[in-house]
Design brief:
- The structure is a single chain.
- By secondary structure, this protein is mainly α.
- The chain has 2 domains: 153 residues; 58 residues, no CATH class.
- 51% of the residues lie in helices and 10% in strands.
- The strands form 2 sheets. Strands 1-3-2 form a 3-stranded antiparallel β-sheet. The chain has a 3-stranded antiparallel β-sheet with strand order 4-5-6, with no helix packed on it.
- Helix 5 runs antiparallel to helix 6 and helix 6 runs antiparallel to helix 9.
- The longest helix has 24 residues.
- It is elongated and about 65 Å long.
Length: 237
C-alpha cells in the first residue's frame, strides 16, 4: 500500500457476508446498468443517503461487488457480483467469495503475512504497528476475522509465517546449544521452558502446556512484531 492513510481508510467497515447480502438485494432491485445513489439507497432500505448508506456502499466497492464509474453518480453491480449471483456450484461460490474477501488491500496484506485470524491480540498489534488508530485497528481486526471464518481463509494461509532476516541483526559469534528444561511432572506436568543465550543477554520462554506447530507459527508472528517494535524504539531513541 502507498501510505499509512491508505491503511486507515481503505478497508471495509462491513463484513463480506453482510455486503454480499446487500449487493444481492441491490442486484434484484435495479438493472445491471445500475442506478443513481439515491435510488440505490432506497433499494437497500435506507431512507436517505446517510453515513450508513455511504459506509455500506464503500464496503461493497472495496470488496469489488459494485462499481462507481468515475465522474458519475451511479452505482453499478460489478461483473464479479453477477458471476457470484449466477454461480451454480458451491465450490464456485466459495472460490468467488475467497477472492472477494482479499480484494481490500489491507486484508490482502494481512493474509499474505500469514497472520492468525483467530488471534485478536496479534492482529491488533500488527495493525497498530502499521499506524492505524486503535479504533480503526479494532474494526479491521474484527472484520478480517469474520471474513476469514466466512470464507475459510485460515484453512489456506500461504504457508507458515517466516521471520524476515535482517542484515542489521548480527548472529551470535558462538553457537550455543538450546537447553530444554522440563518442569517437575508433579508440579507442572504440561509446562515446558526454553532457556537460551542471545548476543548481549540471556532469555527464556515458558509455555503452560505442550508446544505444537500452531504455537510455533504464532510465536514467529510475535517475534516479527517484537522486531518491528524494537526498530521503532531504536528510531525514536
Amino acid at each position: 500500500m502507498n501510505s499509512d492513510n491508505d491503511r486507515s481508510n481503505k478497508f471495509p467497515r462491513r463484513n463480506l457476508s453482510n455486503s454480499i447480502a446487500l449487493a444481492f438485494q441491490l442486484l434484484n432491485g435495479v438493472s445491471k446498468a445500475g442506478a443513481d445513489v439515491k435510488t440505490t439507497a432506497s433499494v437497500l432500505g435506507y431512507t436517505s443517503v446517510s453515513g450508513a448508506t455511504k459506509t455500506a456502499l464503500a464496503a461493497m466497492r472495496l470488496y469489488g461487488l459494485i462499481e462507481k464509474p468515475h465522474g458519475k453518480d451511479t452505482v453499478v453491480p460489478s461483473e464479479a457480483l453477477i458471476r457470484l449471483h449466477t454461480a451454480t456450484s458451491q465450490t464456485e461460490k466459495s472460490d468467488f467469495c475467497r477472492k472477494l474477501a482479499l480484494n481490500p488491500p489491507l486484508f490482502a496484506e494481512m493474509h499474505s503475512e500469514g497472520l492468525n485470524s483467530d488471534d485478536t491480540a496479534l492482529l491488533l498489534r500488527w495493525l497498530m504497528l502499521q499506524n492505524l488508530p486503535e479504533r480503526a485497528a479494532r474494526t479491521a481486526a474484527r472484520i478480517y476475522s469474520e471474513n476469514a471464518r466466512f470464507v475459510g481463509l485460515g484453512q489456506s494461509s500461504p504457508g507458515p509465517f517466516q521471520l524476515p532476516l535482517s542484515s542489521e541483526i548480527k548472529p551470535a559469534k558462538r553457537t550455543l546449544p538450546l537447553a530444554l528444561e522440563v518442569g517437575q511432572p508433579a508440579a507442572k506436568p504440561e509446562g515446558i521452558r526454553f532457556d537460551f543465550a542471545l548476543v548481549t543477554c540471556d532469555a527464556s520462554i515458558s509455555f503452560s502446556r505442550d508446544f505444537g506447530e500452531a504455537d510455533l507459527k504464532s510465536l514467529r508472528q510475535y517475534l516479527d512484531l517484537l522486531e518491528q517494535s524494537w526498530r521503532v524504539r531504536q528510531t525514536k531513541g
